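Chapter summary example.
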Amino acid sequence: MAKVAREMVEKSGIDVDQLVQLLIKNAAAELTTYYYYTILRANLVGLEGEGLKLIAETARIEDRNHFEALFPRIYELGGELPGDMKAFHDLSACSVPHLPKDPTDVKAILKVLVEAERCAVRGYTHICNMTFGKDHRTYDLALAILNEEIEHESWFSEFLGEGPSGHFLREGETSPWVSKFLK
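The structure predicted for these 183 residues follows.
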């Protein structure tokens, strides 16, 4: 634990235990999303599904990167991840993105994907609002993740026809916003 870092966050008026619990719940959401996106991606088949596979894969990998970027901050603030994977899974800040009843329904899969991203956008916006001007390191991390989650939501939303496209598939490395926390 980084004692002075935690002390500074406490002195800024943040309930550090509450913040750590939020970070753990979001880390659980990221890791479970990574797992369930693996299943969803595998079911994106056929002419319609294959067109979405690469973008679903990018979101899947970036969600794993979010988990990898979050857990060091949890430990820096004196928290820890549960030792039991099932307990960790059940802490998730978002409901799990299950495969729809009809696994060939690509539009239903897209709806699952977009709802998972919307939950993440709400969660990281909350953490940003909580830490802005008080806990610079957590704010910077949550903002980086938020930027990627907003892009994920936009990708899936646009495939659902919810508006014109202002986004393009990322080329090159994944996690342009979060990568600085992975080095």
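To summarize the output: The chain is about 65% helix and 0% strand.
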